C-alpha cells in the first residue's frame, strides 16, 4: 500500500511540474531557513558547554550600593576564591582572571600590541577544558613569570621556530617564559583568551578586600548546591568587606552565575567576551517556525485551489472502492514526498551556504551538521510537520468529495475552502509584513544611533596608544613635533577616550548641595588640558585645566553637566571632592574648577552618567585631530614623527568614529540576518501568491473571455484580477502593524536613546510588500487580459 502511495505521489508530481516546482521551491526556502536558524540558535546555546565540569562551574558576581548608586559587575575581590576554599572549605577549586586590555609585547627587537591576554592561576587548565597543544596542563602556570599563548600568537611572534621555552617581555619590561601553546580560542566561549600570564606575587590590589579587579570562577564540590555556598559568601563579606564598605556608607552582595549562562543571560559591564541575548534566540526560533509554517500554508492553499482539477481523480478512486482514509493517506504521502524532495535539496544548499552564513553572523557552524543527533531529529520533525500540517487539510478536504456528484460534473466550489485560503493568505502576509517592518525599524534605530549627536566632534580624530611610562614621558615632545605638521590641527591625551571603555569607576566623597561630604561611585577619567579642545567639547562653566602642571594636577577636577544635575548644585565651581588613594581609605582633596558639556563616553546604549575628570599629563592614549585635506599624507607624516620620537614601540592607531561603530556591530549583524530572512519570508509568500494567481486565472478564464467580448479592456482585467489579492494584503497589514508596533516599541525600550516609531517605516514596508505582491500577480493578470477570448469561451 505504501509503495503504491509513493508511486502515485511521484506520478502526480511529474504531471504537475509548475505546481510541484512552486511547492518544492517554497518548502526548500523554508527548510533551509529553518535549518540555518536552528543551527544559529543551537550555536548560541552551546557557549561554554564543551567544558566537562560545566555544571559545577560558577562565576562570582557583585552588586554594590553606595548611597543611591548601584554597580553590578562580574568581578570580586582577588582573595574571594582562596578564602572560600581554604578558610571555609566551601568549594572544590577556583581560578582568577584579570586583564584582557591592550598589552605591549616585545619579542627580541619586534613589538606587538595584543589584547585578550589575562593573568590567571595555575588551576586554569584544571577547571577549563581548553586544548593545550604543547606543555603540561598541571605545571605550565605554576611558576611566576610563565606564560601560555595561543597557536596564532606563537606563529605570529616566532614564525621561524617553536615558541616553547622562548622569552618575551610584557609591557616592554617584564620577562616571561613561554611554557605552553594552546589551541586558538573557539568563538563559543566566554573566556576568549589568546594568552595566559601566571599570577605574580606582587600584583597590585591582589590582597585588598576593597578592590574588585578579578573575574573569579569557582567549582562547587560534588553534591553541593548554590544555595549552600551563598550563605558562606555572606559570612565572608561580613567578616572581611563590610568593615571597609561601611566606612563610606556602602554595601555589597555576592551572587553566583552559572558558567553556561554567561553568554545569553549577562547584563554586566566588563565582560571578557561578546555576550548575546536570549530574547534574540526566541525571536529567531519563532522566525524559523513561521517560515516553515508559511511554506506549509503555500502547500495547503495550492492543493485546495487545485481541488477541481483533482476532483475527477477522487471520484474515480471512490467509485473503484477506495475508502476515505486511503485517499487521505494518499494525499498526506504526496505532501511527505514533496517535503522529502525539498529536504534533500535543502541539505545540499545548506552545506554550501554555511560558510557565508558563518561569516555574516560571526559563527563557527560546522558543515558536518548532520553528525549531530539533534539535527537528525529536527529534520525528521520537519518532514512530519510539513507532511502532516501541510497535507492534512488538503487530504481531508479532497477525500470528502462525493463520487457521484464529481463524475456527473456537479462538484461545486466550497465557500469554506475559499474562505480558508483567504485566511491563510492573510496569515502569510501578516507574518511577512511583521518581519519586514520590524527589520525596517531595526535599521532605522541603528541609523539613529550612528547619526545621533555624541556631544563631541569625532570626525578626523585619530587615537594612538602610548604604552609604558617611558613613552608617556615623551608625550610633550611628540605633541610638539606633531603640531609642526601642516595637516595636524591639535593634539591631546587622556586615560578615557570616548568609545574605548577605558574609563574607571571608583568611590569618592563629594560635597552635596547642603555642604556635607557624602560617598558616591562615579565614572572618572584623566586628561590633559588639550583633551577637550581637541574633541571640541566646550567648557560651559568655569575653566579648563591650565597648561602648566602645578596645582591643577594636584587638586583640580572638571565635572560634566550630568554630575551637576545629579548632585543638585546651583553653583558647582568650588565644590569639594575627596578621592580615596589607598586601601587604608586615606583621601586627597580636589576642587571643581569647571563644568564640561555632556558627551557620550561609552556608547549610545548607555545613558550619560555623572563624570569626574582629573588632570594628568602621562596618559595612555594620544588623540590627534587632523585637517580635512590630505588625510592619507598626514597619517604618513604622523607615523614618521611617532617612529622618530618613539623608537621602541609599534605605531598603532584607530579613528575615533570606528570605536563607536564597534559597539553596534552585534546589532548590525543580527539586523542583517533578520533582513535576509524577512526577504525570504516575503519570497515564500509570493511564491504561493504566484501559484494561486495561476489557478485563479485558469478558473476565471471563461469569465474573463466574456468580459472582453462585452468591452472590458486590458487594464480593467488586470485590476479585476489583482484587487482581490491586494485586498487580502491590505487586510494583513491591519493585522500585522499593531502587533509589530507593540513588540518593536518594547524592543526600543532596551536602548538608553531610542528613536520615535515613525509612520514612514510602516508606510515604506507596506509599499514594498504591495509592489512585490502586485508584480507577482501581474504576470497571470496580464496573460489573462491579452488572451484571445474566443478560445476561452469555445473551450468552456
Question: Could you characterize the architecture of this molecule?
Answer:
This protein is an alpha+beta fold and 796 residues long. 50% of the residues lie in helices and 19% in strands. The protein has 25 helices and 24 strands. Strands 1, 2, 3, 4, 5, 6, 7, 8, 9, 10, 11, 12 and 13 form a 13-stranded mixed β-sheet that branches. It has a 6-stranded mixed barrel with strand order 16-17-22-19-21-20. Helix 2 crosses helix 10. It is globular. The two termini are 37 Å apart.
Low-confidence stretches: none
The helix count comes to 25
Helix content: 40-55%
The fraction of residues in strands falls at 15-25%
Properties at a glance:
13-stranded mixed β-sheet, 25 helices, alpha+beta, 6-stranded mixed β-barrel, 24 strands, globular, 796 residues
What would a concise description of this structure say?
With 796 residues, the chain is of the alpha+beta class. Helix content is 50%, strand content 19%.
Helix-strand layout with pairing:
Layout: H1 2-15, H2 17-44, E1 57-66, E2 69-73, H3 80-87, E3 91-99, E4 103-107, E5 110-114, E6 117-120, H4 124-127, E7 132-134, E8 146-150, H5 151-157, E9 167-170, E10 174-182, E11 195-198, E12 215-220, H6 226-245, E13 250-258, H7 262-265, H8 278-305, H9 307-319, H10 324-361, H11 373-399, H12 403-407, H13 415-451, E14 461-465, H14 469-472, H15 475-482, E15 488-495, E16 504-511, E17 517-527, H16 531-535, E18 539-542, H17 550-555, E19 556-560, H18 561-567, E20 576-580, E21 587-596, E22 611-615, E23 621-626, H19 631-645, E24 653-655, H20 656-662, H21 665-699, H22 701-709, H23 714-748, H24 759-786, H25 789-795
Parallel strand pairs: 6-11, 8-10, 17-22, 19-21
Antiparallel strand pairs: 1-2, 1-12, 1-13, 3-6, 3-12, 4-5, 4-9, 7-10, 8-11, 9-10, 14-23, 14-24, 15-17, 15-23, 16-17, 16-20, 18-21, 19-22, 20-21
Helix pairs in contact: 1-10, 2-8, 2-10, 2-21, 8-11, 8-13, 8-21, 9-11, 10-11, 13-21, 13-23, 13-24, 15-19, 21-24, 22-25, 23-24
Amino acid at each position: 500500500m505504501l509503495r503504491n502511495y509513493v508511486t502515485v505521489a511521484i506520478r502526480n508530481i511529474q504531471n504537475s511540474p509548475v505546481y510541484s516546482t512552486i511547492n518544492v521551491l517554497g518548502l526548500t526556502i523554508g527548510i533551509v531557513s529553518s535549518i540555518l536558524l536552528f543551527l544559529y540558535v543551537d550555536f548560541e546555546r552551546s557557549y561554554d558547554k564543551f567544558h566537562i565540569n560545566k555544571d559545577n562551574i560558577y562565576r562570582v558576581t557583585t552588586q554594590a550600593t553606595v548611597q543611591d548608586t548601584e554597580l553590578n559587575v562580574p568581578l570580586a575581590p582577588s582573595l574571594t576564591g582562596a578564602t572560600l576554599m581554604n578558610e571555609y572549605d566551601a568549594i572544590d577549586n577556583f581560578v582568577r582572571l584579570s586583564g584582557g586590555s591592550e598589552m605591549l609585547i616585545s619579542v627580541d627587537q619586534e613589538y606587538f600590541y595584543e589584547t585578550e591576554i589575562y593573568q590567571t592561576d595555575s588551576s586554569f587548565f584544571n577547571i577549563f577544558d581548553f586544548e593545550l597543544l604543547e606543555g603540561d596542563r598541571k605545571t605550565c602556570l605554576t611558576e611566576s613569570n610563565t606564560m601560555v599563548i595561543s597557536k596564532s600568537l606563537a606563529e605570529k611572534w616566532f614564525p621561524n621556530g617553536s615558541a616553547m621555552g622562548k622569552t618575551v617581555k610584557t609591557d616592554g619590561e617584564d620577562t616571561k617564559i613561554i611554557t605552553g601553546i594552546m589551541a586558538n580560542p573557539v568563538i563559543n566561549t566566554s573566556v576568549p583568551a589568546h594568552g595566559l600570564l601566571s599570577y605574580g606575587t606582587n600584583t597590585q590590589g591582589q590582597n585588598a578586600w576593597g578592590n574588585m579587579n578579578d573575574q573569579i570562577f569557582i567549582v562547587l564540590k560534588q553534591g553541593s548546591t548554590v544555595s549552600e555556598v551563598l550563605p558562606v559568601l555572606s559570612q565572608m563579606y561580613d567578616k572581611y568587606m563590610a568593615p571597609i564598605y561601611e566606612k563610606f556608607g556602602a554595601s555589597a552582595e555576592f551572587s553566583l552565575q552559572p558558567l553556561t549562562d554567561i553568554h545569553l543571560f549577562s547584563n554586566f559591564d566588563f565582560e571578557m567576551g561578546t555576550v548575546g541575548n536570549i530574547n534574540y534566540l526566541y525571536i529567531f526560533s519563532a522566525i524559523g517556525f513561521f517560515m516553515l509554517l508559511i511554506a506549509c500554508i503555500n502547500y495547503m492553499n495550492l492543493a485546495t485551489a487545485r481541488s477541481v482539477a483533482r476532483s475527477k481523480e477522487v471520484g474515480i478512486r471512490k467509485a473503484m472502492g477506495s475508502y476515505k482514509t486511503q485517499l487521505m493517506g494518499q494525499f498526506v504521502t504526496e505532501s511527505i514526498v514533496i517535503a522529502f524532495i525539498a529536504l534533500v535539496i535543502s541539505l545540499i544548499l545548506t552545506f554550501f551556504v554555511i560558510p557565508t552564513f558563518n561569516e555574516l553572523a560571526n559563527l563557527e557552524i560546522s558543515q558536518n551538521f548532520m553528525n549531530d543527533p539533534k539535527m537528525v531529529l529536527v529534520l525528521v520533525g520537519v518532514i512530519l510537520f510539513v507532511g502532516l500540517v501541510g497535507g492534512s487539510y488538503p487530504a481531508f478536504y479532497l477525500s470528502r468529495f462525493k463520487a457521484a456528484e464529481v463524475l456527473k460534473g456537479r462538484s461545486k466550489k466550497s465557500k469554506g475552502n475559499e474562505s480558508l485560503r483567504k485566511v491563510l493568505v492573510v496569515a502569510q502576509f501578516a507574518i511577512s509584513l511583521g518581519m519586514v517592518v520590524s527589520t525596517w525599524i531595526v535599521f532605522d534605530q541603528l541609523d539613529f544611533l550612528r547619526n545621533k549627536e555624541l556631544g563631541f566632534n569625532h570626525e578626523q580624530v585619530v587615537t594612538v596608544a602610548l604604552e609604558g611610562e617611558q613613552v608617556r614621558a615623551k608625550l610633550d615632545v611628540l605633541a610638539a613635533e606633531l603640531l609642526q605638521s601642516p595637516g595636524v590641527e591639535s593634539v591631546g591625551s587622556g586615560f578615557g577616550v570616548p568609545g574605548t571603555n577605558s574609563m574607571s569607576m571608583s568611590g569618592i566623597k563629594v560635597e552635596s548641595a547642603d555642604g556635607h561630604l557624602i560617598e558616591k561611585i562615579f565614572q572618572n577619567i584623566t586628561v590633559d588640558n588639550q583633551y577637550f579642545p581637541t574633541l571640541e567639547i566646550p567648557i560651559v562653566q568655569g575653566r579648563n585645566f591650565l597648561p602648566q602642571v602645578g596645582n591643577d594636577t594636584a587638586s583640580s577636577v572638571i565635572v560634566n553637566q550630568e554630575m551637576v544635575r545629579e548632585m543638585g548644585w546651583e553653583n558647582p565651581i568650588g565644590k569639594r571632592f575627596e578621592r580615596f588613594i589607598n586601601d587604608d581609605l586615606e583621601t586627597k582633596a580636589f576642587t571643581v574648577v569647571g563644568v564640561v558639556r555632556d558627551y557620550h563616553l561609552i556608547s549610545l546604549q548607555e545613558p550619560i552618567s555623572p563624570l569626574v575628570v582629573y588632570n594628568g599629563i602621562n596618559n595612555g592614549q594620544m588623540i590627534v585631530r587632523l585637517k580635512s585635506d590630505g588625510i592619507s599624507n598626514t597619517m604618513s607624516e604622523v607615523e614618521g614623527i611617532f617612529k622618530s620620537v618613539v623608537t621602541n614601540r609599534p605605531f598603532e592607531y584607530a579613528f575615533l568614529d570606528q570605536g563607536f561603530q564597534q559597539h553596534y556591530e552585534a546589532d548590525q549583524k543580527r539586523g542583517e540576518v533578520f533582513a535576509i530572512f524577512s526577504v525570504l519570508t516575503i519570497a515564500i509568500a509570493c511564491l504561493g501568491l504566484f501559484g494561486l494567481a495561476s489557478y485563479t486565472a485558469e478558473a476565471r478564464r471563461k469569465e474573463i473571455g466574456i468580459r472582453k467580448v462585452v468591452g472590458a479592456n486590458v487594464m480593467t482585467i488586470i485590476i479585476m484580477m489583482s484587487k482581490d489579492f491586494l485586498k487580502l494584503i491590505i487586510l494583513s497589514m491591519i493585522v500585522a502593524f499593531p502587533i509589530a508596533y507593540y513588540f518593536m516599541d518594547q524592543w526600543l525600550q532596551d536602548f538608553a536613546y531610542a528613536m520615535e516609531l515613525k509612520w514612514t517605516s510602516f508606510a515604506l514596508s507596506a509599499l514594498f510588500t504591495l509592489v512585490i505582491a502586485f508584480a507577482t500577480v501581474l504576470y497571470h493578470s496580464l496573460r489573462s487580459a491579452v488572451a484571445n477570448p474566443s478560445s476561452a469561451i469555445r473551450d468552456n
